[in-house]
């Protein structure tokens, strides 16, 4: 392989159209909760007990259609899809808190939420997710495996099973958090791809052709990476409903997107331990 084609293994690399042309799918990944195992004990509240990672598998042939649907929704509620001179970003926390662009004084919030649920439920994507109960993890293992790496293993395993069955390839897209954080995450995923996991060989993971990073907004703040917006919203809906029994209506709108729905337990969605 040409050294330039290996660039993504060496340092956090932005996504490009050239990369997309060479694969069948893109998997946008986001997490909910914090992966730290410090101070986790029997008194830890439910809100800090769980950590989840979600990946949405997007067929390359559907990218333009999904992008149009996302943009149409933004333009329905904000002129040109912008607020305060910046592209509106569908960020789960801002939507729930009704902050910024999602202030009910600016938009019909209830109508927007209904339209958002309709959009998410209609997406031609597949979802794979992992939820780890950190309290049980710490209690069960003398030397508990780092939660973020473990979650990634589970997610990558399940996505790879699916893609190999279809004979397809993919890249991973993650939200950029900063150089140091991105480098640490890149090392973790590179290790999984190089060594495999307890259940999957490195050969099985060859369907993953690269790891790329992006902010939710472009540097000029006039465009956004909608795959990361979708993974953010879907990740929180899974986390909220499956760990705290909240947001059942929101979860219902995305449940059928899981791999192997309706029999998605341990396939599209894995709980651990």
Care to describe what's here?
The chain has 273 residues and is an alpha/beta fold. The protein has a single domain, classed as 2-Layer Sandwich (Nucleotidyltransferase, domain 5), CATH 3.30.420. Helices cover 42% and strands 18% of the residues. The protein has a six-stranded mixed sheet, with helices on both faces. Strand 6, helix 9 and strand 7 form a beta-alpha-beta unit. It is globular and about 50 Å long. The mean pLDDT is 94. It comes from Limosilactobacillus reuteri (Lactobacillus reuteri). This is DUF3800 domain-containing protein.
What are the main properties of this structure?
single chain; 273 residues; alpha/beta; Nucleotidyltransferase, domain 5; six-stranded mixed beta sheet; two-stranded antiparallel ribbon; 11 helices; globular
Side by side, the strands of the main sheet go 7-6-1-2-5-8
Q: Which descriptor suits the 3D outline?
A: globular
Which CATH architecture is right? 2-Layer Sandwich
The count of strands amounts to 8
Which ranges are low-confidence, i.e. pLDDT below 50, for 5 or more consecutive residues? Answer: none
Q: Main sheet, how many strands, which sense, barrel? A: 6 strands, mixed
The CATH class: Alpha Beta
From the alpha-carbon coordinates, what is the Rg to the nearest angstrom?
Answer: 18 Å
At CATH level 3, the topology is: Nucleotidyltransferase, domain 5
Q: What structural class do helix, strand and pairing data support?
A: alpha/beta
> Helix content range of the residues, please?
40-55%
Please, how many helices? 11
Tell me the strand percentage band. Answer: 15-25%
Mean pLDDT: 94
Order of helices and strands: HHEHEHEEHHEHHEHEHHE
User: How many discrete domains?
Assistant: 1
Ends: how far apart?
39 Å
């Amino acid at each position: 392989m040409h050294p330039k084609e290996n660039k993504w293994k060496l340092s956090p690399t932005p996504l490009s159209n050239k990369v997309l042309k060479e694969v069948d799918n893109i998997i946008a990944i986001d997490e909910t909760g914090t992966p730290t195992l410090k101070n986790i004990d029997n008194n830890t509240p439910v809100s800090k007990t769980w950590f989840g990672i979600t990946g949405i598998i997007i067929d390359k042939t559907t990218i333009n259609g999904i992008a149009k649907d996302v943009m149409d929704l933004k333009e329905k509620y904000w002129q040109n899809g912008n607020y305060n001179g910046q592209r509106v970003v569908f960020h789960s926390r801002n939507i729930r808190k009704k902050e910024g662009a999602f202030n009910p004084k600016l938009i019909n919030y209830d109508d927007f939420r209904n339209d958002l649920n309709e959009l998410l439920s209609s997406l031609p994507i597949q979802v794979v997710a992992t939820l780890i109960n950190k309290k049980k993890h710490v209690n069960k293992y003398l030397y508990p495996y780092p939660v973020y790496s473990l979650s990634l293993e589970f997610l990558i395993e399940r996505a790879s099973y699916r893609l190999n069955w279809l004979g397809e390839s993919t890249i991973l897209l993650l939200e950029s958090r900063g150089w140091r954080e991105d480098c640490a995450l890149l090392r973790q995923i590179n290790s999984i791809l190089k060594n495999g996991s307890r259940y999957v060989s490195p050969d099985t993971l060859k369907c993953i052709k690269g790891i790329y990073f992006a902010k939710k907004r472009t540097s000029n703040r006039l465009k956004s990476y909608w795959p990361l917006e979708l993974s953010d919203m879907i990740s929180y809906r899974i986390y909220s409903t499956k760990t705290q029994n909240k947001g059942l209506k929101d979860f219902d709108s995305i449940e059928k997107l899981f791999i192997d729905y309706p029999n998605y337990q341990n396939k599209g969605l894995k709980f651990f331990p």
